[in-house]
Amino acid sequence: MDKDLKTYLKVYKDWIPADICKETVKELEKVEGQFQTHQFYDVSTNSHHSYNNELSVTWSNVKHKDLFMKRIWDGLQQYVTEFNFKWWNSWQGYSEVRFNRYRPDTQMKLHCDHIHSMFDGQRKGIPTLTVLGGLNNNYKGGELVFWEDSIIPLKEGEIMIFPSNFLYPHRVDLVTKGTRYSYVSWAW
After folding, report:
1. What is the 3-state secondary structure (H, E, C) of the chain?
2. What is d(CA 143, CA 140) in angstroms, rounded to the nearest whole number?
3. What is the pLDDT of residues 101-159, one digit of tens each?
4. What is the domain range of residue 78?
5. What is the rounded average pLDDT for all residues in the chain?
6. What is the rounded distance in angstroms from the CA atom of residue 22 to the CA atom of residue 28?
């Protein structure tokens, strides 16, 4: 297999209708008290921590949550079918959708999605694929950057799927104007 890592980073356009994205953003703007500062899990100390200017996240229910969950499933199926992996063609499950909010002067530090803390004993495994979706375009900054220098645009209604391992380090740069909304789920 002679493929570049970028081959496995796929963006699917028009995945969630624009009107659903806009409605979801309006809904998220009203659940202020349900957002919490994002925390990274440190496996070596078995603790969570945040950095300065960290984004906020919520697992809130939104009106169209079932649609988001279905479209995440559809995306995972398309991704696996498209690559026709002979050695891996299924996953055991995927997480509930989490919504991310980046206000001005917030960001997400460089990391990979090798998340241990989402497995509580009933769910076992590690994330194998990340599904990341864009909900709006009316902000400045907030670029999604892979491998320190590859900016990958993620527009309203698009999703991106990529492997959730150390080969896919990524960050979201500081938002400078407006608020950036996105969502994420992980398959294992």
Report:
1. CCCCHHHHCEEECCCCCHHHHHHHHHHHHCCHHHCEECCEEECCCCEEECCCCECEEECCCCCCHHHHHHHHHHHHHHHHHHHCCCCCCCCCCECCCEEEEECCCCEEEEECCCCCCCCCCCCCCCCCEEEEEECCCCEEECCEEECCCEECCCCECCEEEEECCCCCCEEECCEEEECEEEEEEEEC
2. 8
3. 999 999 999 999 987 666 666 766 788 999 999 999 999 999 999 999 999 999 999 99
4. 8-187
5. 91
6. 10
Q: Which of 13, 47, 36, 35 is nearest to 159 (CA)?
A: 13
CB atoms under 10 Å from CB of 65, counted, come to: 16
Place of tokens 């409605």: 23
Give domain status of residue 128, yes or no. yes
Pairing outcome for strands 47-49 and 129-134: unpaired
DSSP 3-state of 108: strand
Give 19's DSSP letter: H
Average of per-residue pLDDT across 53-57 = 96
92 in a domain, yes or no? yes
- Using DSSP bridges, classify how beta strands 56-58 and 98-102 pair: parallel, antiparallel or unpaired: antiparallel
> Looking at residue 153, which CATH number applies to its domain?
2.60.120.620
- Has residue 1 got a pLDDT over 60? no
Is 161 a member of any domain? yes
The count of structural domains within the chain is 1
